[in-house]
Design a protein that fits this description.
The complex is a heterodimer of chains A (313) and B (383). Chain A is mainly alpha-helical and 313 residues long. Chain A has a single domain, classed as MetI-like fold (Orthogonal Bundle), CATH 1.10.3720.10. Helix content of chain A is 78%, strand content 0%. In chain A, helix 1 packs across helix 15, helix 10 runs antiparallel to helix 11 and helix 12 packs antiparallel against helix 15. In chain A, 27% of the residues are buried. The longest helix of chain B is centred in the middle third of the chain and has 18 residues. In chain B, helix 4 crosses helix 5. In chain B, strand 12 and strand 13 form a beta hairpin. With 383 residues, chain B is α+β, with helices and mostly antiparallel strands. The chains are: A mainly alpha (313), B alpha+beta (383).
Chain lengths: 313, 383
């Protein structure tokens, strides 16, 4: 609001800022291009082209040597519609959504607490969030495997407390996948939520309390809408990698916890059927792009609104 | 007192090493426009937050309408605040902002809509109901904040420097609007400000605060005309301080003061001071007269010869810094017809200054640091 106005005033009144525009727009355009070019080339070469290739290969037949045969076919797309594949796709979706929901549920109070903590404590708490990154992701997943192992400490404690029977398995099921995924993604959701909460003006929740809102009402009606951008980022940061996760379900999931990522790996390494793997990947890419596109549209909208606000007298 | 509507009884609050409020007792009457006035960090905002329920006092109690509200959370108090930053909810429209209180109270939708419409009319913003706070001007935001608080029909409206974020012209306009609103709805206002002009023009009574304590409570005229401490004298308006001793009290009404280097000065004795007591005399610059001609001697008139050291033209007035018996004294003079006046006083010219004994005030408490609040004399500016 104020920032927007200040910015627009600046561009209106500061001749130095406007000068390059007027003097040499061609040079400016060129400079912009030069700066953007490396990123643009990199992304085209290593993201856009491979993605297109995946889509193309999905429509090619496989050959017996694990390569790509000649001609075009729809068999791979048809193979996607089998009940087994659909079941895995469904499981991938609900595991990812559940992981996202649990991560958010845990991150919001965590981000709020860190943002409200005194500066000394804030740094310590942030440190605690970041510390796990010092250990390799793979090692941490293996650690969970031994924790959840039938002879492992978690199982023994739960058994001693009478919470699980002696035959219960904590490992190799979808619950284990969700648990380890939430554990893995938690720092990635806490950080954007903390960043948004830290910028949040807590006088607004005070105002809400002043107007009669109970603490939770103030939290829900004023604080959560106030950090919605952080929430959006957090959702993307969990949901997209969750949909494509491969290592976690592979290591702790077992056959009942398999996800699309594992299926793709099996098609490539076991069946040596690249086109079928490509078809599965294409589905995954589309599934990931859908929420991303949704968010982009939302952000474009709010950005437009920002611009309008900035220009408003 | 039973007539006090909002009452602070011996309230203290400490933040870390800072004693923000130090044993303050205050009583505010129903329907009163009451101001807490003081420099930043004097504890006035903490007092407001104690009344709103955002802070609980370390000691003392807060009463509203005879009920102890010290432990009540903000949402349970019939008190609403207008924040300095307005704290409008940025994701809500003007309508939703104003209707926030009634919506939280789960009042019927129809009722809320009518009530908000009435409020929009009061603040003359019916056309802006669908806008977001970012699309409003500073004055409009301020009016929305007022409406959002008033719609809950609070017993007391707390205002935390509500005009500080506005420019001068807008501030003057909103000042009049606030005054009108107070007259219209007749609820109690507790107004926190560091701007003496705001406090003076709006308030029924003012409490001047410094260092977490109340320095003086009174009507604007009392505070200005009869400051009790050097802080009040220096913070409210400008003044001249002269230090001395009570020499004699020829009658019950007046004292003669001995001020080093000056002939005896006569002063109204409103505090029944005894000879020998050290005092600090405060004289407002506009109470001191200045002229080329020696004025007529009168029994209660203090007359001193002086030299003009500086002349500052201020538009409606002119301020003179003169030296009399070694003291620098400021004199404020209203001039109705500046260019047609008698021969104007210029630099280095000899002149006479005089004031009536009733216009000087002897202060209870004098602190050297309060002199820092005065306008800096030009000689110190140069150093």
């Amino acid at each position: 609001m104020d920032d927007g106005r200040r910015k627009s005033e600046k561009s209106r009144f500061d001749p130095l800022r406007k000068a390059p525009f007027r003097l040499d727009p061609i040079f400016r355009r060129k400079a912009e291009w030069l700066v953007t070019l490396p990123t643009f080339l990199w992304l085209t070469l290593f993201v856009a082209v491979p993605t297109l290739l995946v889509f193309v290969i999905a429509f090619r037949p496989a050959n017996p040597y694990g390569g790509i045969g000649a001609g075009w076919t729809l068999d791979n797309v048809r193979a996607l519609a089998t009940p087994a594949t659909l079941a895995i796709a469904w499981r991938t979706l609900w595991i990812s959504l559940l992981t996202t929901a649990i991560s958010l549920l845990l991150s919001i109070p965590a981000g709020y607490t860190i943002a409200r903590a005194s500066e000394r404590w804030r740094n310590r708490l942030l440190m605690l969030v970041i510390v796990p990154f010092w250990t390799s992701f793979l090692v941490r997943v293996f650690a969970w495997r031994s924790l959840l192992h039938p002879e492992g400490p978690v199982k023994r404690v739960l058994e001693a407390l009478g919470l699980v029977g002696p035959d219960a398995t904590l490992l190799y099921n979808p619950a284990a996948v969700v648990l380890v995924m939430v554990y893995t993604f938690l720092p990635f959701t806490i950080l954007p939520i903390y960043a948004a909460a830290e910028k949040f003006d807590f006088r607004l929740t005070e105002a809400a309390r002043d107007l009669g809102a109970r603490p939770f009402q103030a939290f829900r009606k004023v604080f959560l809408p106030g950090i919605r951008r952080g929430l959006l980022t957090a959702v993307l940061v969990v949901l997209i990698p969750s949909l494509g996760s491969y290592i976690i379900p592979d290591l702790v999931g077992g056959p009942g916890g398999e996800m699309l990522g594992n299926k793709i790996a099996q098609r490539v390494f076991t069946d040596r059927n690249l086109p079928l793997a490509a078809a599965l990947s294409a589905v995954l890419v589309l599934a990931v792009l859908a929420p991303l596109a949704g968010v982009l549209v939302l952000q474009r909208k709010s950005k437009k609104a920002d611009i309008i606000m900035g220009e408003a007298p | 007192m039973s007539t006090d509507f909002l009452e602070f009884r011996g309230v203290s609050k400490r933040f870390g090493a800072v004693q923000a409020v130090d044993g303050v007792s205050l009583g505010i009457k129903k329907g009163e426009f009451y101001s807490l006035l003081g420099p930043s960090g004097c504890g006035k905002t903490t007092m407001l937050r104690l009344a709103a329920g955002f802070e609980t006092p370390d000691a003392g109690r807060v009463f509203l309408d005879g009920r102890d509200i010290t432990e009540l959370p903000p949402d349970k108090r019939k008190v609403n605040t207008i924040f300095q930053s307005y704290a409008l909810f940025p994701h809500m429209t003007v309508r939703a902002n104003i209707g926030f209180g009634p919506a939280i109270a789960k009042r019927p939708k129809k009722e809320i809509r009518d009530e908000v419409d009435r409020m929009l009319e009061l603040i003359r913003m019916t056309g802006e109901a669908a806008k977001k706070p970012d699309q409003l001007s500073g004055g409009q935001r301020q009016r929305v904040a007022v409406a959002r608080a008033l719609i809950n029909k609070p017993d007391v409206l707390l205002l935390d420097e509500p005009l500080a974020a506005l420019d001068l012209k807008l501030r003057q306009k909103m000042l009049i609007e606030l005054d009108l609103i107070h007259d219209q709805i007749g609820i109690t206002f507790l107004y926190v400000t560091h701007d003496q002009a705001e406090a003076m023009s709006l308030s029924d009574r003012i409490a001047v605060m410094d260092g977490g304590r109340i320095e003086q409570v009174g009507t604007p005229a009392e505070i200005y005309e009869a400051p009790r401490t050097s802080f009040v004298a220096a913070f409210i308006g400008d003044t001249n301080f002269l230090e001395g001793r009570v020499e004699a009290c020829p009658d019950r009404e007046y004292c003669r003061l001995a001020i080093a280097g000056m002939p005896p000065v006569l002063c109204f004795n409103d505090k029944s001071l005894q000879p020998g007591q050290p005092i600090s005399l405060s004289i407002r610059p506009e109470k001191v007269h200045i002229s080329h001609e020696r004025p007529e001697e009168k029994p209660q008139r203090n007359i001193l010869p002086a030299v003009v050291e500086d002349v500052i033209y201020l538009g409606s007035t002119t301020k003179f810094w003169v030296r009399a018996d070694g003291y620098r004294i400021q004199v404020l003079r209203q001039h109705a017809r500046y260019f047609l006046d008698e021969k104007p006083l210029r630099w280095k010219e000899d002149c006479w200054i005089w004031w009536h004994a009733d216009d000087g005030f002897m202060l209870d408490r004098f602190r050297r640091s309060d002199e820092g609040l005065l306008a800096v004399p030009p000689q110190r500016v140069g150093d």
